[in-house]
Write a structure and sequence with these properties.
This protein is α/β, with parallel strands linked by helices. About 45% of the residues lie in helices and about 15% in strands. It has a seven-stranded mixed sheet, sandwiched between helices. It has a four-stranded antiparallel sheet with strand order 10-11-13-12. A two-stranded antiparallel sheet has the order 1-2. Helix 6 (about 150-165) crosses helix 12 (about 310-320) and helix 8 packs parallel to helix 9.
């Protein structure tokens, strides 16, 4: 029998095995090296960038040569997979998730609607149902995986706008704190809201939204004939990890008939722990919740999540029909994800969540998150003991902010440079109320007590 013609892009079986073996060698070596690797490296960057700017060749290059280039490129910049990376919000990059993505990309099944790959959609839907349950949402709720928190926030604002204002929304107003993530204002713009519709509400001494100021702002807008429709609270702000008073804000939103959205992109997954549930009390009353599994569940970048209390409200904001699409799912437990998000074409990102949760078990993630809470407390205690530092906010979650006492912005930036030049730890900075603070966000699954103790001592030495 004649062999069917083979795609020029499909290597032979032996070639695929050989290429796969080379990739496994690279990534396992990369993971094993993380603990000793420098937290950042910008040496000899210019010639590398120049070489990478070349166009692709007319004829192919040997696979091993291309992998060498990738490995070299991976060593430049700041290392977000490093146990010493505590800048911004660390990413995890679980090995099991990488394997899941490899499998999902090769299988290449479409999951925008349920019919083409119902079993894969069921796997993703099962994890989303578990998340809704963990956050105390009712059976009417629906989750959807997104490329990240920014897209989740956009969908939440569009859902709120549609539910509360309909098609006439230019006189709508929404309320955020002065510590909210910038993606909220950006999403409001993409949702068609004028910049002046975003009201900035003041915060208290702990940098949490002030419910009294929120109530006053809503009352002022109502007297002006405007239409308040949305309040956004933070479950872990980007600068200090502050958690807004969710229960009070939820009660106010309910009283004023506002949509209540919680941006828990950074801090939401601490809900899995006992201490986190206490800190996030009231999040179960939200209409929508943004989560980033690529933060709190240590998954690869590009894995966000939106949970909605009312699946019908989320669907009404996003669903559109087309005659060329496969038949719609009529099973609430087997959703068409394109009906709940802006995406029609989407990858099977659910596998990168499903596989590590089933492989490692939920308890492993809970213990890892508990460890981050412990480490933040210890680092805060150590830094607060240094007279030369101002450490004003005890961490509510896993983020510690500090600055040189009575120092200038230049002093803070110089201190940051001295700390990061150690090559063992990488911090970031943030302006808070007109002053520059350094910040440590401890959230990498590779960050353990030994490295965080070392990081605190590096800071102490840099201060001295």
């Amino acid at each position: 029998m004649t062999e069917p013609p083979r795609s020029p892009f499909d290597p032979s079986l032996n070639q695929m095995r050989s290429m796969g073996s080379e990739v496994v060698d690279l990534v396992t070596r990369f993971v094993d090296d993380r603990y000793a690797a420098p937290s950042s490296d910008y040496t000899d960057l210019a010639p590398l960038l120049a070489s990478l700017s070349s166009p692709p060749p007319e004829h192919g290059t040997a696979f091993h040569e291309l992998l060498e280039t990738i490995e070299t490129a991976a060593g430049k910049g700041f290392d977000t997979a490093n146990p010493g990376f505590v800048g911004y919000i660390p990413g995890g990059g679980l090995f099991a998730s990488a394997l899941a993505d490899f499998v999902a990309c090769v299988l290449n099944r479409y999951t925008g609607v349920a019919l083409p790959a119902p079993a894969f959609v069921q796997m993703e839907a099962g994890v989303l149902r578990w998340l809704c349950d963990r956050f105390g949402l009712p059976s009417t709720s629906q989750g959807v995986l997104t490329p990240g928190g920014s897209m989740s926030n956009l969908s939440a604002i569009v859902a709120a706008r549609t539910a509360k204002l309909g098609d006439r929304y230019l006189d709508g107003t929404m309320y955020v704190s002065d510590e909210v993530h910038h993606s909220i204002a950006k999403s409001a713009r993409f949702a068609g809201l004028p910049p002046e519709s975003v009201r900035i509400v003041g915060t208290d001494d702990a940098l949490r939204m002030d419910p009294g100021s929120l109530g006053e702002a809503i009352a002022v807008d109502r007297r002006r004939g405007l239409k308040p429709f949305l309040v956004v609270a933070s479950a872990g702000t980007i600068n200090t990890g502050a958690v807004d008073p969710l229960t009070e804000i939820a009660a106010l939103a309910e009283r004023e008939e506002l949509w209540f959205h919680v941006d828990g992109a950074y801090g939401g997954f601490f809900q899995l722990t006992d201490r986190g549930r206490r800190a996030l009390d009231g999040i179960e009353r939200a209409d929508t919740i943004t989560l980033d599994p690529h933060k709190g569940l240590f998954l690869p970048y590009g894995t966000g999540c939106l949970l909605a209390r009312d699946s019908d409200a989320l669907r009404r904001a996003h669903e559109m029909q087309a005659h060329y699409l496969p038949r719609q799912s009529d099973d609430p437990g087997l959703p068409d994800f394109s009906s709940f998000s802006p995406e029609l074409t989407r990858d099977f990102r659910g596998l990168r969540l499903w596989l590590p949760l089933h492989l490692h078990g939920v308890d492993t993630f809970v213990r890892a998150l508990d460890e981050k809470l412990d480490l933040a407390g210890r680092v805060h205690q150590r830094l607060a003991s240094l007279p030369a530092l101002e450490v004003p906010w005890a961490p509510e979650l896993s983020l510690v902010a500090f600055r040189p006492r009575d120092g200038t912005t230049e002093d803070a930036e110089n201190l940051l440079q001295r700390i990061n030049s150690s090559g063992r730890v990488w911090l970031s900075s943030a302006p808070i109320r007109g002053r520059t603070y350094l910040r440590m966000c401890i959230l990498s699954h590779r960050s353990h007590p030994e490295r965080m103790h070392e990081a605190a001592e590096i800071i102490a030495a840099a201060v001295a």
